Amino acid sequence: MDEARLRRLLGGTDLAWLVERARRRLERGQSLTGAVSLAAPSPAERAAAERLLGRTPGAGRALTVRLDAVDAVLVRSGVSPEGLEAAVTALTGRVVPLDEVRRSEEHAWEEVYASLALLAEDLPRYAAWAARVRHDGLVRRLARTPTAARPLLEQTVRVLRELPVEPARSLSVFAADVLGSAHALDDGTPVATLALSGARALTGHPEGAGAAWRRAAWASAGLLRDDVSSTVLTLNLRGNPALDWMADAGEPCVLTLRQLARRPPCTAPPVLHICENPAVLSAAADVHGPDGRPLVCVQGQPSAAALTLLKHLRATGAAFRYHGDFDWGGLRIAATLMRHVPWRPWRYTAVDYREGVAAGSAAARPLSGNPAPSPWDPDLAAALAEHGTRIEEEAVLDLLLADLGQGADAPGRDAGPTLKAAPARTENP
């Protein structure tokens, strides 16, 4: 091959389109025969094709060149005795068939995903998540190539092996300790996106969007943007001077995670009632004041502060009674709480729900959303599906307030023995 002549004849920019089309055919395993066209050629590109072929390629608007004619010119002239394929290789480098490229790339991805497989083997709670991430394309969308994906998955696995974090700690401090940078888990980074997906699978935190949702999702695994934004509402809870002062006044108290980490209650009530909605706690303060039973409100999905408080009170000897909304979201919140601390239902069974439906509360509304289980009373989920009606806590407020009075004989109907905290599930709620 006369490479100097080849580059003068075929290696210029005006025929680069022709060489590129020939190479693409070789990559796809196609023969270098038939015609290739350039839709809007420049005068220089037309002139180059004419010099190559020794004749005018045609007078049409598009420039059309037959590859087998180019092959014949190269062989006949001695520029490339082995023809166009050898010329393309000399000009552009070895041609790797796309099938071979795909096989090589898939093998590289298999090696990258090995760290996920090892995580699922060591910590089965991540198995379903790891399988889903492998097949839904999230890693490929975030990293694009196996080379970029390898450090991404290695960092993600290091994060997930440390979860959940107990006691809760700062997200930035955690990132610095585990990944070597305080900003490694900042919003928008690929490792933060992937690790948060795994954290949600671990804790069962629901889907959502926005900064507040991401803050809550991290907090569900014990990682906090800060130690003052995570809070929990209490009423008539005692155990330190601040709590005692608020309980004496019969007023609600907002506790931050920082306060709970530094000065948790030193005592616990024998029985603590827990509600989902702040309206219940506010009404209890209005009706009973300092004479009501101790009450904690989780305000929807339990925050890191709420879980920290409840775990501390449980270790100090408290037993829990829980009530929430009779809807699918309420069941998910209750199940999340049950995975962290044991509790008994407080007017939160199928019997209580059916009584509410029969009472025909004006506050009842049609049930919506995806069904959820009720492990403390499987009949409750079945009853919700049967009646298709949601009943919020405010609709049964009179019953709850009656239970919260110190003179009440019993702390509310329950459905059997205390339910133990269950291991965190890996599937999404």
TrEMBL record:
<protein>
    <submittedName>
        <fullName>TIGR02679 family protein</fullName>
    </submittedName>
</protein>
<feature type="region of interest" description="Disordered">
    <location>
        <begin position="408"/>
        <end position="429"/>
    </location>
</feature>
<dbReference type="Pfam" id="PF11796">
    <property type="entry name" value="DUF3323"/>
</dbReference>
<dbReference type="InterPro" id="IPR024466">
    <property type="entry name" value="CHP02679_N"/>
</dbReference>
<dbReference type="InterPro" id="IPR013495">
    <property type="entry name" value="CHP02679"/>
</dbReference>
<dbReference type="InterPro" id="IPR024465">
    <property type="entry name" value="DUF2399"/>
</dbReference>
<feature type="domain" description="Conserved hypothetical protein CHP02679 N terminus">
    <location>
        <begin position="32"/>
        <end position="238"/>
    </location>
</feature>
<feature type="domain" description="DUF2399">
    <location>
        <begin position="253"/>
        <end position="404"/>
    </location>
</feature>
<dbReference type="Pfam" id="PF09664">
    <property type="entry name" value="DUF2399"/>
</dbReference>
